[in-house]
Design goal:
heterodimer, A: about 450 residues, alpha+beta, Peroxisomal Thiolase, Chain A, domain 1, 8-stranded mixed β-sheet, about 30% helix, about 15% strand, B: about 140 residues, mainly beta, 3-stranded antiparallel β-sheet, globular
Chain lengths: ~450, ~140
C-alpha cells in the first residue's frame, strides 16, 4: 500500500496557482452515514466506531453501486475527535479490551485504513495513506489522489468518537502543570480549542460592527431547524425539540457570552464518501457530483490569541484561494455550508466568501432575515454540527444531496448547481467546491 | 486561585526566570525590530533565530475584551468558576497580547478599554506568573 509521504504534494494552499488542474475530472459518487449516537454504550459491538465506519463505507459503496473489489483507495482519519487532551474521555484504555477485532483502540475509539481494509476484506487497495488529516483536508487529499491517478475508486471515512464522561475532561486538563504551548494559555484558564480561539474575535466583532452575542440566535435556531429536517442526524433521531429563542437566550453559559447552544454536541458516528474519476462516475448509480476545487490553509496568530484583524485576513485569504482554484466567484455559489462547530466563527466565513453579497459586519442582519431552506437565502442548509451533532460531515452530505436534488424537506428552492462546504476553522482546515456539472 | 503551574522549557526558561524576578522580558528580533510573545525558537516574521534576543518591557496595556469562564475543562480551576479571562494588548506593541484573570476586578465587571499594569502572582513556591491588574 502507498503511504502518505512526499513526493505526493496534494495540498493547495498558495495563491497564484490558478484553476485546479483536475477541475471537473474528479467526482463524488456515493455517501453513507452510520447512526449518530451520543456515546458508545460500551457494550454493543455493532455500535463501535469501527462497526459504524464499516457500515458507513458499505452504504457509500451501495449508494455508488461499487463492490469491494473495485475499491483501490482508502483515506481514513485515524485521530480520535475527542482529541489529545481528552484523557479518559478519548481512549478506552486502560480498561480491558475485547476479542479481536476490538483488542486495541483501533475499531473502538479510532479507525484507520489498515483496520478497515482488514475488516472489510478489500483486496485491491493500492492507496491507503497512514497520516490523514481531519475531513476538512482529507477530502482534498482524496480528490487530488484520484486526480493524480494514485487511485480511481477511493473511500473517504471520517469517524467521530465519544465515550462516557464529559468531553475533553481528564488528560492534560486534569494536570496541575502546563507544558509546551500550554504554558502560555492554561495558567489563566484557556485550555485550548476553537471555542477560545473564536470567542475573543467574536467579541471584538460585536464591538467593531455593532450588535451583541445573542444576535447569532436566529442562525443557531435555524441550524436546529435544518437538523430536524435531516433524517440521519442526531437531533432528528433522538426526540430533540426545536430550539426556540427563549430556550437560547435563557440557556447557560460555557464561556460567557458563549452559550451551551452555541456549541455542537459530541457524538459517536461515522460517515463515508466515495471519490472516483468523473469518467467512472458516469457509469455508477448516482449522478456524479463533480469536484471543482479543493484548498487548504494554516495560519498562526502573531501573539497568544488570534484577534479579529487576523481572523478576517485569514478567512479572506481562504476565500480568494478557493475562488481562484474553482474559477468561480461569490455570485456563483448556490449552496454554502461552512463549519459551525461553535456558532461564533460562522460569520467570519460568511463574510469572507461574501455569499449572497454579505460583507464584513453584515452577518447579524443577514441572520435576522430569511435564511430558511425554503427562502431566498438558504444559509447552511445542512444544519451543520449544531443541528446534527458533531459529525463534522453534515456540510458535505447536504451539499451532495442538494446538488443531486435529493435533500428532501431541506431541498432549497433556489438554484443548486454549485456547493461550497468545509470543516475548517479560520486558522486551519480546508474547503471543497462541488458542482452538478463538471464545468 | 489555584492556577495551573507553567513548566519552563529550555527556550522559555529566560522568560520565566525573568518573571520570577518580577520582570517582563519578551523576545525581540533585531532584524524586524519587533517584539515576540509567546516565546518561539525563531522570529515568526523573518524566520531568523540568530536575530532573536530579549528585551524588558514596561508591562502596561489595555483590556481589549473579555469572557467569563463558567464551565471550563481545567480540574484545577473548577472551584474558581466563574472567573474573568481578559485579553490584554500591550501598549508598547498592540500586536502582542496576553491573557489575564484581572485580580481585583469583580467577575463580569471588567472595564473594557481600561489600562492595566503587569503584576506577578505566585502559583507555586518559587514560581510566579505575569498577571494584569486594572489601573483606576
Amino acid at each position: 500500500m502507498t503511504t502518505l509521504d512526499p513526493p505526493f504534494k496534494w495540498r493547495r494552499e498558495k495563491l497564484g496557482a490558478g484553476v485546479w488542474e483536475h477541475r471537473g475530472k474528479v467526482a463524488i459518487a456515493g455517501y453513507g452515514h452510520s447512526p449518530v449516537d451520543r456515546r458508545w454504550d460500551e457494550t454493543s459491538m455493532d455500535k463501535t466506531l469501527g462497526a459504524y465506519s464499516i457500515l458507513a463505507c458499505q452504504k457509500a459503496m451501495d449508494d455508488a453501486g461499487v463492490t469491494a473489489d473495485q475499491i483501490d483507495g482508502v483515506v481514513c482519519c485515524p485521530t480520535t475527535i475527542a482529541g489529545a487532551s481528552g484523557g479518559a474521555a478519548s481512549n478506552w484504555a486502560p480498561r480491558p479490551f475485547f476479542a479481536p477485532p476490538y483488542d486495541s483502540e483501533w475499531g473502538l475509539t479510532r479507525v484507520n485504513a489498515k483496520w478497515l481494509i482488514d475488516q472489510m476484506h478489500l483486496p485491491n487497495v493500492k492507496f491507503a495513506p497512514s497520516s490523514v488529516p481531519t475531513i476538512g483536508e482529507m477530502v482534498g487529499l482524496a480528490a487530488q489522489a484520484v486526480g493524480d491517478g494514485l487511485c480511481t475508486t477511493c473511500l473517504v471515512i471520517y469517524p467521530t468518537g465519544n465515550l462516557t464522561g464529559r468531553y475533553r475532561r481528564g488528560g492534560e486538563n486534569a494536570e496541575d502543570y502546563a507544558k509546551g504551548e500550554r504554558q502560555w494559555t492554561v495558567p489563566w484558564g484557556n485550555h485550548g480549542g476553537n471555542d477560545f480561539i473564536n470567542i475573543f474575535p467574536h467579541n471584538q466583532y460585536c464591538i467593531t460592527y455593532g450588535g451583541t452575542h445573542d444576535d447569532v440566535a436566529p442562525f443557531v435556531i435555524n441550524q436546529h431547524r435544518n437538523g430536524l429536517l435531516t433524517p440521519w442526524g442526531f437531533n432528528a433521531n433522538h426526540g430533540i425539540p426545536q430550539l426556540t429563542l427563549e430556550d437560547y437566550v435563557t440557556s447557560r453559559f460555557i464561556l460567557k457570552p458563549l452559550r451551551i447552544w452555541d456549541c455542537d454536541r459530541p457524538v459517536n458516528a461515522s460517515a463515508a464518501y466515495l471519490f472516483t474519476t468523473a469518467e467512472r462516475a458516469k457509469d455508477m448509480k448516482q449522478p456524479p457530483i463533480y469536484v471543482l476545487n479543493h484548498s487548504q490553509h494554516n495560519f498562526k496568530p502573531r501573539s497568544t490569541q488570534p484577534v479579529l484583524d487576523e481572523i478576517e485576513m485569514w478567512t479572506d485569504h481562504a476565500a480568494r484561494l478557493m475562488y481562484e482554484g474553482a474559477g468561480l466567484g461569490p455570485e456563483d455559489v448556490d449552496i454554502f455550508n461552512p463549519y459551525d462547530g461553535y456558532s461564533t466563527m460562522t460569520q467570519f466565513f460568511l463574510e469572507a466568501f461574501q455569499w449572497h453579497g454579505v460583507k464584513r459586519g453584515d452577518s447579524f442582519a443577514f441572520y435576522a432575515g430569511d435564511i430558511r431552506v425554503e427562502g431566498p437565502h438558504p444559509f447552511s442548509s445542512s444544519g451543520g454540527n449544531l443541528g446534527n451533532g458533531r459529525t463534522r460531515t453534515a456540510m458535505y452530505t447536504d451539499s451532495i444531496q442538494q446538488l443531486r436534488g435529493t435533500a428532501g424537506r431541506r431541498q432549497v428552492r433556489v438554484r443548486a448547481d454549485t456547493a461550497l462546504c468545509a470543516f475548517t476553522t479560520p486558522s486551519s482546515g480546508g474547503w471543497i467546491m462541488l458542482g452538478k456539472h463538471p464545468s | 486561585m489555584p492556577k495551573v503551574i507553567p513548566v519552563a522549557d529550555p527556550l522559555s526558561k529566560p522568560f520565566w526566570d525573568a518573571v520570577n524576578q518580577k520582570k517582563l522580558l519578551l523576545q525581540f528580533c533585531s532584524g524586524c525590530r519587533r517584539l515576540q510573545y509567546p516565546i518561539r525558537d525563531r522570529c515568526a516574521d523573518c524566520g531568523s533565530a540568530e536575530k532573536l534576543g530579549w528585551k524588558e518591557v514596561r508591562g502596561r496595556g489595555h483590556i481589549s475584551t473579555y469572557i467569563i469562564i463558567e464551565d471550563g475543562r481545567l480540574d484545577r480551576r473548577m472551584s474558581d468558576q466563574p472567573y474573568n479571562l481578559a485579553l490584554v494588548t500591550m501598549d508598547e506593541d498592540p500586536g502582542i497580547n496576553f491573557y489575564a484573570n484581572l485580580p481585583g476586578t469583580p467577575v463580569d465587571k471588567v472595564p473594557v478599554g481600561a489600562p492595566v499594569e503587569v503584576v506577578f502572582e505566585e502559583v507555586a513556591p518559587g514560581q510566579l506568573i505575569h498577571e494584569w491588574r486594572a489601573v483606576q
